[in-house]
Amino acid sequence: MQVLFAPLQGYTTGIYRKAHAEIFGGVDAYYAPFLRVENGRPREKDLRDIEGDFESGRNFIVGAKTVPQIIANSVDEFKVLADAIVQKGFTEIDFNMGCPFPMQVSRHRGAGLLSDTQTVKAIMDEIARLTANGSVKFSVKMRLGQDSPDEAFALLPILNDAPLAHITLHPRLGKQQYKGAIDFTAFVRFYEECRHPLVYNGDITTVGQIRKMESGYPKLAGIMIGRGLLARPSLAAEYKAAADAVSISERDLLGKILTMHGRLYEHARSTYQGDSQILSHIKSFWEYLEPSIPKKAFKKIKKAGNLGEYDAAVQSLDME
Ligand SMILES: Cc1cc2nc3c(=O)[nH]c(=O)nc-3n(C[C@H](O)[C@H](O)[C@H](O)COP(=O)(O)O)c2cc1C
């Protein structure tokens, strides 16, 4: 089964994706955090982020690809963003209908679009137009609804008729954000009624869980993992490596985490200025890693107030 790295705004940046692919691997595709419209144009910062993923006419990662994602509340926004991505040479684009951030939902984007069948239909028609010559593919990443799972089931006939490569479903509601129970009953109904290849997303943290989904839902096209991969970057490679899920040793995992950190830290130091800016960027690398590193060092890293303290905290990890 395919393993896809979920887009996580502020975490899975271009430099993170590249370092992860080279150091850990096991991921079939990296979904970039969403590109949005700002003042009527694609946001420059988002465009720069995907730029490095596509060099010399191909995705930079051997054996994996980057799929840029867009978020839009109208066909007009959708077109502006899709055009910008196609112009960069990408041939696959994901459309976000799941973001629960109030800033986006209140502007009718992400999960805020799920109740608007008319706009979704118009966007699906645009997808049909853009995919007609076969040069670009689209997928959708969605939740069950903003307020009720009825929203996803009202949309499903429209989505079933659209030429989508696949749908990724995170079976929560937008109003739940990232917490609360996953609605497995609604997931199973969606799995049965969806005519496109379906990818499951939500709360996967172990190889055992991936295998359970694989055997329980044999029609699944893949698993998309976000926080589980941030917390244990080896998860996808471990799943791919062995049928019996042999874990890498904690020592090797720590070593690879430190190698990956080295790359991201170097990038942060050459990109940002001043301790607090550099620290605020590099500390997000550690945020979800608590389960994979010793507690004492984790606390020290979190507390570090300047680069001196930070370096000492990271070095203490190296001596564990
Ligand atoms: C901080 C953060 C940023 C996220 N940014 C995006 C995003 O840009 N696009 C998107 O489709 N989902 C985004 N998500 C949702 C994740 O891709 C994923 O659907 C969610 O975390 C559930 O999967 P998980 O339990 O494997 O993490 C974000 C989630 C978090 C926690």
Question: In words, what does this structure look like?
Answer:
This protein folds into 2 domains: 2-241, Aldolase class I (TIM Barrel), CATH 3.20.20.70; 250-318, no CATH class. Helices cover 47% and strands 17% of the residues. The chain has 14 helices and 12 strands. It has helices at residues 14-23, 44-51, 75-87, 102-105, 117-131, 150-161, 184-193, 207-216, 227-231, 235-241, 250-271, 275-286, 295-303, 307-318, and strands at residues 2-5, 29-35, 37-38, 41-42, 54-55, 58-59, 65-70, 92-97, 137-145, 167-173, 198-201, 222-225. Strands 1-2-7-8-9-10-11-12 form an 8-stranded parallel barrel, surrounded by 6 helices. Strands 3-4 form a two-stranded antiparallel sheet. Strand 11 (198-201), helix 8 (207-216) and strand 12 form a beta-alpha-beta unit. Helix 1 (14-23) runs antiparallel to helix 11 and helix 13 (295-303) packs antiparallel against helix 14. It is globular. The model has no long low-confidence stretch (mean pLDDT 93). Flavin mononucleotide binds next to strand 2 and helix 9. Residues 6-10, 33-34, 69, 96, 98-99, 141, 170, 178, 201-204, 225-228 line the site of flavin mononucleotide.
Salient structural properties:
2 domains; two-stranded antiparallel ribbon; eight-stranded parallel beta barrel; binds flavin mononucleotide; 320 residues; TIM Barrel; alpha/beta
Helix-strand pattern, N to C? EHEEEHEEEHEHHEHEHEHEHHHHHH
Q: What percent of the residues sit in helical stretches (DSSP H or I)?
A: 40-55%
Radius of gyration using CA atoms only = 20 Å
Task: Please give the number of β-strands.
Answer: 12
Give a list of the ligands.
flavin mononucleotide
Helix/strand-derived category reads: alpha/beta
CATH homologous superfamily annotation of the largest domain:
Aldolase class I
What is the arithmetic mean of pLDDT?
93
CATH architecture of the largest domain: Alpha-Beta Barrel
Number of discrete helical segments:
14
CATH class of the largest domain: Alpha Beta
